[in-house]
Design brief:
single chain; alpha+beta; four-stranded mixed sheet; 4 strands; 57% helix; 16% strand; globular
């Protein structure tokens, strides 16, 4: 996970690299271990399909530079009014071990037609939790940012190891 400061630096990097005519405004730049997702607003008169065709080469150029620099894939999306559409984004497999009672929850969702498979059911559960606990997750992310800031202010472990080895050798 990256800090709020790193997230803002990433947003600034994309804002500076994207040509002025790609988005009307940059809505969000979100990052995890595998992917950076860039979302911006498009004119109400432009469709997602038109946007994708018009900006494809520009987005590819920025994505290549970002992927080399940040070692993550870049996904794109647009927002028009209340509608948000993501495209070229990853679906990353996640391994988990579940007990029988947890598997039964997934199987019930599949049997009820809510999901096609256990994997879809698990993704549905994650979306549901995310939607219903946005404030709690935001607080947790803020806390993690603070932990990373405190760690960064602490001593450098590699330096202290090297110093202690020197004193042992002398």
């Amino acid at each position: 996970m990256i800090t709020a400061e790193q997230s803002e630096q990433l947003r600034t990097w994309f804002a500076e690299r994207l040509p002025v005519d790609v988005y009307e405004s940059l809505v969000s730049v979100t990052v995890d271990r595998e992917e950076i997702t860039v979302v911006g607003t498009i004119p109400a008169t432009e469709s997602v399909k038109e946007f994708r065709e018009r900006t494809r080469e520009q987005r590819i150029e920025v994505a290549r530079e970002a992927e080399e620099l940040y070692r993550r894939k870049v996904a794109w999306g647009v927002q028009s009014g209340d509608d948000r559409v993501l495209f070229t984004h990853l679906a990353v497999p996640v391994m988990t071990r579940l007990r029988q009672s947890e598997r039964q929850v997934l199987d019930t969702l599949v049997a009820g037609g809510v999901a096609r498979s256990r994997a879809d059911a698990l993704a549905w559960c994650v979306r549901l939790v995310g939607r219903n606990t946005d404030a709690w997750l935001a607080d947790l992310r803020d806390s993690l940012d603070k932990v990373q800031q405190v760690r960064a202010q602490g001593p450098d472990v590699t330096e202290s190891d090297a110093d202690s080895m020197k004193s042992e050798d002398e």
